[in-house]
Amino acid sequence: GAGGLPPPAACDEGPPAALPPELVLPVPGYRTAAAADSAPAAAMAELSIVNALHLPLVQRKYPNAFVSYTWQLDPQADGRLLGARLREQLGRTDVIYRTTCPAWDHTASAPLPLILEGERRLPYPEAFEAVLLQLYVWHLDSPAAAPDGTLLGSASVRLSPLLSGFSEVDGYFHILPPSAGTDVSGPVEADGASGQIRVKLRPCHASFILETQPIIGKEPAPEADAAGDGEDLVQTGA
């Protein structure tokens, strides 16, 4: 009737079907659907650690070699890496036993690091000039010693050639003997030249690839005379 009770409050109808997006607590390593839709695609790189040549002997024995790798900031660049995890190991190859010329044929995809220069985040491809792929070559005494190893040397791969129109970096890079300032742990065995390592790296985000490649196109054809029908125009390259 007119004097009946009012309808029950919303809180009496049970909990909502879902929390508002701003109240959903993010789980480390995951994003909400709304965040995934609004965030730009991550810049990725495909890398391949192919093989090494002329690795040093370890105590007059052939090494059991593997490689670990990570992103680093180019010492000549002004800026810093964003995110502590970007300084940690991105991955490692398998161990190739008893040879100074191991062939790993290791491939992986890795997100390119975020670079901050002052208060400005460097976009790609501009940020290629500030990024290094740092590789560490290790010797494993025995399978039982994994994952610890003896450092044989390190190599740095600059990404700056990608700014000059190259679609990928592919070549052999010198493996430098470890020094007292090397930011890794483990004993040092190698002394002198430590060989070469072949690495291939290619950005696989389409927009970055297009921006780093020169654009080759035809000049626009001249417009037809306003009084003519355009039949006298000669098209080239057909």
Question: Explain this structure to me?
Answer:
The protein has about 240 residues and is mainly β. It has one domain (about 40-210): Sandwich (Immunoglobulin-like). It has helices spanning about 35-40, 205-210, and strands spanning about 45-55, 65-75, 80, 90, 105-110, 115, 120, 130-140, 150-160, 170-175, 195-205. Strands 5-1-11-10 form a four-stranded antiparallel sheet. A four-stranded antiparallel sheet has the order 4-2-8-9, with no helix packed on it. The protein has a three-stranded antiparallel sheet with strand order 3-6-7, with no helix packed on it. This is C2 domain-containing protein. One of its GO terms (biological process) is cilium assembly.
What is this structure, in a nutshell?
This is C2 domain-containing protein. With 238 residues, this protein is mainly beta.
